[in-house]
Amino acid sequence: MLLSIASTKVLVNGATGRQIAHTCDLRQGDPISPILFILVMELLNSLIKVADHRRILSPLPGQVIAHLASLYADDLVMLVAPKVADLYYLR
Fold it and tell me: Which of 5, 39, 51, 52 could bridge 56 with an S-S bond, Cβ 3.0-4.6 Å?
């Protein structure tokens, strides 16, 4: 009952995003959660690599950074140029 009426908004650079409604689909600690996360992150990583190869995203400065996405446990870090077009395509 509590999850059906709760919602969240994410604050990014001072602007609030759209409302995210909570549901009780998968609970924290569910054994299938890590598998689903890995499947979705692999797909996202593949899409980012395709966008990078097609030069849809702006190149990062220097040649030091080779990856645009860093995945560790349940965290994702995206490295993109601070340009409106890149953020639009990433979204």
Answer: 51
In the block, tokens 């409604």 appear at 21
| Positive or negative torsion for Cα 38, 43, 49, 52 | negative
30-63 confidence digits (pLDDT tens): 777 778 888 888 888 888 888 888 888 887 777 6
Where in the chain are the domains? 2-90
Distance, CA of 20 to CA of 35 (rounded, Å): 22
**Contacting residues for 21 by C-beta, under 8 A, at least 6 apart:** 6, 7
* Residues contacting residue 67 through CB under 8 Å, at least 6 positions apart: 79
Confidence tier at 70 by pLDDT (50, 70, 90) = confident
State which amino acid sits at residue 18: R
